[in-house]
Amino acid sequence: MKNDLWVEKYRPTTIKDVIGNEEAKALFVEWLENKRHTKKAVLLYGPPGVGKTTLVNAAANEYKLRIIEMNASDTRSEKAVNRIAAPATSFVGLDTFSGETKGNMLFMDEVDGIAGNEDRGGVSAIIKIVENARTPVIMAANDPDIDKLRPLKKVSLLIRFQQVRVPLIILALKRICQLEGIKAEFEALEKIAMNSRGDVRSAINDLQGLAEEGKTLTLQDTLALGIRNKDVSMYDTLKGYFGAKNIGEVSSLLSYSSVDYDDLLMAIGDNMPRRYTDPCELAEAYDYLSQADVYRGRVGTENWHLLKYFFNNLSQAAAVNPESYKPFAFISPPIKVITLFWTKGKRTTLGNICAKIGALCHVSKTEAKLIFVPYLKIMLQQKKKANPIAEWLKLTPEEVDFLVSMKMF
Amino acid sequence: MASNEEALMWVEKYRPKTLDEVVDLHDIVESLKAFMRNPKTMPHLMLAGIPGTGKTTIALCIAHELFGENWRSFTLELNASDERGIDTVRDRVKDFSRYSRGAFGNVPFALVILDESDQMTGAAQTALRRIMETSSRTSRFILICNQSSKIIEPIQSRCAIFRFSRLDRNAMKEHLECIAKKENVNLTPEAAERVVDYSEGDLRHAINALQTAAAYKEGGLVDEKVVSQVIGEASPKQVQMMLNKALNGDFTEARRIMYDIIGTYGFTGAEIIRQMQRELFKISYITPEQKAELSDILGEYDYRLTQGANNDIQLSALLAQFAKVGKPQGEST
User: Which run of H or of E encompasses B45?
Assistant: First the structure.
């Protein structure tokens, strides 16, 4: 069992089971079912691991179409395309009548990977095929903005895929855990899902890498994963970053570093106060860091060309005053991760209390925290034992104790 | 009132059951009553406005008026900020709305109340839009939100929108006095003023403060002194401390408190900034000019929060700016 790759083992076989990207799925099904569309081809685009290939396979399975696939591992010159793809789209196979399949569909995966020289003429050959196609032609790409794909975009219906939302990934991971008989803390799955940045495939791979039969997967296990590959280079990056003599040195360092951007941002944020002890310098550096984060937000998962502004601001933050640099010990792992780890119990208890308030008083947990908890705390302090309000809210004695002794936010 | 005597939080105990009991929303109530007379004509509704102005109450009143005591059997109540993903919409809303609950009297539909629906993700809203269409024969939706602009257009266009403005001060005061009378609490006019001021137009907040003040001292007298004490105790002390530390130049400690708050309460950056904004203006040892400057900084970082990727970075940067502006002076008590 352990030898099977879970990504393949649990690849959905029906469209309904492909998680996330509802809009894209609906659009795709509509296109597939409905011949009215003027475009004979679709171009599915979006970040890796969000279900483009899975969707196509699931659709083929459901509509009983046979996939003729060409991906980046195949040569896609004009000749090759014509040899493989053209027949697939212009003839109706004999087995159509046997009922096992209802025809072909051509699936060109990773079309942004069509290389300039080796795959000469590939793009124009595809276009010709699309024009004459009698069967659906489906293309998939990560980055649709490549110039040479422009002609393909003209003849295709563009369907955009986005990162899969974290809760959906968590659910998928949970399901796999259930089927594999693995126990896992919710927080651990959450961490894996967050780590994946919407890439279901990598999340499932991470899960498989971490999970052990008969052992509960904890948040701590996942922390180890995050740091395992990156720790050494993170240390070096921080050392170079804070010790750089000028802005040029910082930017060249950043362009070579393989550290994850978000981890780096968090680590720099934690260590900044140790680097700049003067409040004015610190404020200036943090201001650059904040702008770097704004660009990180705008980059999201697709506007990668904005990344240079992210790096520019990061570099500026390091170069506020190179003279004041003194070596210092780095804070690691991130304060946020540690804090959230140690306060998990408190958050859960408070969350449960607020859910009880919410159910009876028709408010969200956040509202309950903000305008019920402070007052409830005072009322319970006045009358801790057998307080009718606590009974009405069905608070346990432990929860009453928690509220009475917790710090006001 | 008789049916809900078991409710012990006053916000629930004195929540109106019928549209007639609702305070200070005459225009909205009148239009809704027209729907109640002939429920078949009721469209999907969207109730939009700031917190504590009666949106949830109105929605529950509608449920009561349509279905009477058994309203819970015909109503699905969800808080979208707790369950804001597409899964909730799919699983719970879709299932509930699709299977007709059977007509109740002359009401041919079941009711779905989605509170804080502006907190729903885009995908969830899109899913909802479809469900609203396909299930319109069997169910009606009441969407409650603070900002209608955060709801996607197609949903807005499917709803009759009612906007709730800030409650009238006097109406709030009267309501508090009315509750106090029923609870045999002697509420002085000054104390009522103080509660209304502090709650910033949020009636729910005001009633909670009143109930706490009444429980604070045996004997049933709630005067300004008691109210001040309660407000003092209920105020966000850690947020105040964080502000003080930052304004005294102790950035590291301020940041530690920030993580303490985030860790225990799980607040978002925006919620913490909202608290800071409120508390900033109460600080006595900085000048009005400084407050204006600091408030500007708050605004800038509030905006950056919406653009950025990492709440903690923005909050840290904000505290660093405060530490720069603040003069190292003695802490106020």
Answer: strand B44-49
The residues spanned by each domain of chain A are: 21-160, 166-228, 231-336, 343-405
> B8 and A388 in contact by Cβ < 8 A?
yes
Nearest CA distance, B327 vs chain A (angstrom)? 11
- Rounded Cα–Cα distance for residues B40 and A302 (Å): 47
Burial class (CB in 10 A: 0-12, 13-18, 19+), A213: exposed
Q: To the nearest whole angstrom, how far is the Cα of A280 from the nearest Cα of chain B?
A: 6
- Distance of residue A169 Cα from the nearest chain B Cα, in angstroms: 12
Angle between helices A78-90 and A122-132 (to 10 degrees): 10
| CB contact at 8 A, A310 and B307 | no
Residue with tokens 């124009």: A124
Q: How many CB pairs under 8 A join A and B?
A: 203
Do residues B233 and A378 make contact, with C-beta atoms less than 8 angstroms apart? Answer: yes
Positions of E strands within A287-382: none
> Between chains, do B317 and A289 touch, taking CB under 8 Å as contact?
yes
The correct answer on CATH 1.10.8.60 for the domain covering A166-228 is yes
CATH superfamily of B2-164: P-loop containing nucleotide triphosphate hydrolases (3.40.50.300)
pTM: 0.65
CATH fold of the domain at A21-160: Rossmann fold (3.40.50)
Residue A110, phi then psi, degrees to nearest 5: 55, 50
Closest of B259, B185, B281, B220 to residue A266, by C-alpha: B259
| Residue A159 φ/ψ, nearest 5 degrees | -125, 125
- Reported as half-sphere exposure (CB side, CA atoms, 13 A), residue B288 has a value of 0
**Cα-based torsion angle of the residue sequence B67, B68, B72, B73 in order, rounded to the nearest 10 degrees:** -50
Q: For each of chain A's 409 residues, which pLDDT tens digit applies? A: 444 788 888 888 898 889 888 889 988 888 888 765 677 888 898 887 888 889 998 998 888 888 887 765 565 666 666 666 666 665 555 444 455 556 778 888 877 766 555 566 677 777 887 887 777 888 888 776 667 777 788 888 889 898 888 889 999 999 999 888 888 888 888 888 888 778 888 888 888 878 877 778 888 777 755 533 334 478 888 888 998 888 888 887 887 777 888 889 999 999 999 999 999 999 999 999 999 999 998 887 777 888 888 988 999 999 899 888 888 888 878 888 888 888 889 999 999 999 999 989 999 888 999 999 999 999 999 887 788 999 999 999 999 999 999 888 8
- Residue A92 to residues A61, A86, A99, B71: CA-CA distances in angstroms? 18, 12, 13, 59
- Closest by CA position to A85, among listed A118, A65, A107: A107
CATH number of B237-325: 1.20.272.10
Which of A175, A272, A293 should be substituted to probe chain B, the one whose Cβ sees the most B Cβ atoms within 10 Å? Answer: A293
Strand, coil or helix: what is A198?
coil
What SS3 class is residue A70? strand
Residue owning tokens 């790096």: A311
Q: What is the ipTM of this complex?
A: 0.87
